[in-house]
Specification:
The protein has one domain (3-31, 44-271): Lipoprotein localisation LolA/LolB/LppX (outer membrane lipoprotein receptor (LolB), chain A). The chain is 18% helix and 36% strand. The protein has helices spanning 3-6, 47-62, 140-150, 165-172, 244-247, 266-271, and strands spanning 65-77, 83-95, 99-106, 111-116, 120-125, 130-135, 175-184, 187-195, 199-206, 213-220, 228-237, 256-257.
């Protein structure tokens, strides 16, 4: 069966091979209502759940540089009613306030990536030998907003790497519940459940001095079949090597440039 036919983006149902889905959803959903805030009541916000969540968000927002690897999987609902799972391994390196590098290896071996160096956004597909760039000065949040608002593309879970993660979480969480203490890959965690109008989310946050996310599961409530996305994080490093060359983009020899178009179907550009 041709994967180009069956692989569809959950968020807009277009073929989506080249644009890298960073970790496959904003922390609590990435939709055109990017700045949407939620109204909450005290009864819906569990203080026992919010405590580790805010520790995590403040810890990550204060980290000036770090890297992490995420093994991810996600459902794609097919026209005939069956869900198929696809996935990838992603290495993410962040240097605040304005640099991020993402290297992606899909399960079929396809390699892709994303770079932002404070001046330019670049996406590239090594197997397809194509790339797209856009000039954009600013910090990480400006780059993420430009990509989602102006280019109208999902940058899944970009807000996890935001400079303003604590505020984002407060704005977007409408319900929060503490579930249990649990162990993920040998690490004791707080298992919490979060909700808003768009998604349900489960998050496992490490206990101790480094309250990093160890696992998450997102359910897209408004999508047909309520598909899920999951990610297991490992190899957190808060003192990685971050030379300027890591974030700067240089096209591979023989790679062809394609244009960014709002709401673009990257496969169409690749196949032209």
């Amino acid at each position: 069966m041709n994967r180009r036919i069956i692989w569809r983006c959950k968020m807009n149902r277009t073929a989506w091979r080249f644009v890298p889905v960073l970790l496959c959803a904003l922390v609590l959903g990435n939709t055109p209502a990017y700045a949407q805030e939620t109204k909450t009541t005290a009864a819906e916000i569990d203080a026992k759940a919010m405590a580790p969540l805010m520790r995590m968000s403040e810890f990550l927002a204060k980290a000036q540089r770090y890297s992490v690897t995420a093994d991810i999987g996600y459902d794609v609902d097919q026209a005939w009613g069956q869900k198929l799972e696809f996935g990838a391994t992603r290495k993410i390196t962040v240097q605040r306030p304005d640099r991020i590098a993402v290297d992606i290896t899909d399960r079929d071996g396809t390699k892709r990536g994303f770079r932002f160096d404070g001046k330019q956004i670049a996406f590239f597909g090594l197997n397809e030998k194509v790339y797209a760039t856009a000039q954009k000065s600013g910090d990480l949040d400006a780059a993420f907003a430009y990509f989602t608002r102006d280019l109208q593309m999902p940058l899944p879970m970009a807000e996890l790497f935001s400079n303003n993660l604590p505020k984002t979480i407060k704005d977007k969480v409408s319900e929060a519940y503490w579930v249990e203490e649990a162990t993920i890959a040998g690490t004791p965690c707080d298992h919490i459940a979060l909700r808003n109008d768009l998604v349900d989310m489960q998050l496992w946050i490490a206990k101790g001095e480094k309250p990093v996310p160890e696992r998450l599961v997102i359910t897209y409530k408004l999508e047909d079949g309520e598909p899920q996305f999951w990610a297991n994080f490992h190899d957190w490093n808060f003192a990685p090597d971050t030379p300027d060359s890591l974030f700067a983009f240089t096209p591979a020899e023989g790679a062809a440039r394609i244009a960014f178009v709002a709401g673009m179907d990257p496969d169409a550009g690749i196949n032209q």
